[in-house]
């Protein structure tokens, strides 16, 4: 986990500032799951600006061609970051949501399995892609997104998320698979 610090008495440590504004919803979607809800970060204009700026500052000098966001909360942040970096945006959707020819990847979740899809023409060989989601739990969703982009010839430069849940092993799995990761904050326990 990377902490971003800025010199501001009002914000202090940006990682803590943002983490403190994430809502925890116990027992959702299943008993025992502590859901980390990022919507409070999105509702407040100041907090949303700080969040977006963290990602924009990290990637503004990177050589990127596209930002890919994972359904659904990864769309929100990913699209804004793509716009701010003057890049195109690629949605990675849940199965059956894209209208054109798709490529699919099934993966395991903390509490089940799912399939994500990408348009067959979403990126071209050699495109350098930033892959964004809101949270890394078991790592399955981000790994599936990476596989889809690479199957189309894209190069996933880094995976990025607001929240890491390290106890669930996803960030370790992704790093062990060779994917560089950037997360803003982490939560112990799930």
UniProtKB/TrEMBL annotation:
- Domain named Phosphoribosyltransferase: which ranges? 61-166
Keyword Cell cycle in annotation: no
Checking Pfam families in the record gives: Pribosyltran (PF00156)
Places the protein is found: Cytoplasm
UniProt cross-references to PANTHER family, sorted A to Z: ADENINE PHOSPHORIBOSYLTRANSFERASE (PTHR11776), PHOSPHORIBOSYLTRANSFERASE DOMAIN-CONTAINING PROTEIN (PTHR11776:SF7)
Q: Which organism is it from?
A: Cupriavidus malaysiensis
**How is this protein named in the record?**
Adenine phosphoribosyltransferase
EC number(s) recorded for this UniProt protein: 2.4.2.7
Give GO terms: molecular function aspect only: glycosyltransferase activity
């Amino acid at each position: 986990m990377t902490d971003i610090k800025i010199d501001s008495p009002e914000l202090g440590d940006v990682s803590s500032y943002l983490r403190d504004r994430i809502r925890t919803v116990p027992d959702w979607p299943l008993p025992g799951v502590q859901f980390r809800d990022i919507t409070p970060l999105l509702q407040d204009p100041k907090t949303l600006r700080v969040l977006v700026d963290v990602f924009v500052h990290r990637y503004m000098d990177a050589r990127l061609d596209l930002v890919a966001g994972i359904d659904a909360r990864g769309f929100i942040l990913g699209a804004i970051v793509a716009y701010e970096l003057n890049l195109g945006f690629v949605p990675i959707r849940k199965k059956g949501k894209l209208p054109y020819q798709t490529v699919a990847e099934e993966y395991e979740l903390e509490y089940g399995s799912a399939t994500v899809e990408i348009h067959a023409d979403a990126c071209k060989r050699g495109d350098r892609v930033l892959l964004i989601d809101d949270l890394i739990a078991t790592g399955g969703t981000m790994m599936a997104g990476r596989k889809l982009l690479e199957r189309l010839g894209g190069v996933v430069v880094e995976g990025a998320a607001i929240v890491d849940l390290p106890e669930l092993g996803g960030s370790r799995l992704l790093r062990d698979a060779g994917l560089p990761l950037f997360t803003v904050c982490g939560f112990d326990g799930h």
